[in-house]
Amino acid sequence: MRAALSQIAVRPDETVAERRARVAGLVREQHTADLVVLPELWTVGAFAFDAFRAHAEPLDGPTAQAMGAAAADARVWLHAGSIIEDGPDGTLFNTSLVFAPDGRLRRTYRKIHRFGFDRGEATLLGRGEETVTLTLGEGGPAELTAGLATCYDLRFPEQFRLLVDAGAGMFVVPAGWPAARRAHWSLLARARAVESQAYVLACGTAGAHAGVEQAGHSVVVDPWGEVLAEAGAGEETLVVDLDPALVAKTRAEFPALRDRVLGVPTPR
């Protein structure tokens, strides 16, 4: 399975419509990939809180239409990062969109862990309620089930354990991670891979979001925790070949997951 992670820069001199068209072109260039991954909130910027309402869109809005068409033209699975979703009752969500090679929207995932504590995303957006998986290459030699997570979710291993229990052998994590905590980004991506014996495809953004410098450094980690590819700070695309069989092989050779102890009583 060939994966392409496009680390997009949110440029202040570029309108959302211009960026949407530019990114659609970048997706079409990856027609030799099986899976293309984009970052979190690349249309508006993960820290552009004041612009969330103005740029919110429905699930069939302009970003979904452009990304579905690009996925169909390139014949790729496309994790199109996330948008600010204008929910049916007016609640906003940070929602990831995944398109099949025929351009159809196959999965959505509303971010469960909202960053900001008592401000920003945590107060402006609704919380997702469900974990989400999707099987790519079903029935073929490259079959691999992906678990979906977004940015701040990376800090919460419980979510990834649930995804493993649902069959995930790969985690796809779009993000708008700040440069101030880049060391955490790299460490947590490797930790989630090692503890779950799964691939981690963590795709960040370049540039700045509303003045917040972005970490960049998108990374692909294998089930042993080895970094297969890592980007720099600027806009670039990582292209990596993954071996889906390595997940089962790793879990068989070092069967740590079977030693999990569940339901340990709370200390008194």
UniProtKB/TrEMBL annotation:
<dbReference type="Pfam" id="PF00795">
    <property type="entry name" value="CN_hydrolase"/>
</dbReference>
<keyword id="KW-0378">Hydrolase</keyword>
<protein>
    <submittedName>
        <fullName>Carbon-nitrogen family hydrolase</fullName>
    </submittedName>
</protein>
<dbReference type="InterPro" id="IPR003010">
    <property type="entry name" value="C-N_Hydrolase"/>
</dbReference>
<feature type="domain" description="CN hydrolase">
    <location>
        <begin position="1"/>
        <end position="244"/>
    </location>
</feature>
<comment type="similarity">
    <text>Belongs to the carbon-nitrogen hydrolase superfamily. NIT1/NIT2 family.</text>
</comment>
<dbReference type="GO" id="GO:0016787">
    <property type="term" value="F:hydrolase activity"/>
</dbReference>
<dbReference type="InterPro" id="IPR001110">
    <property type="entry name" value="UPF0012_CS"/>
</dbReference>
<dbReference type="InterPro" id="IPR036526">
    <property type="entry name" value="C-N_Hydrolase_sf"/>
</dbReference>
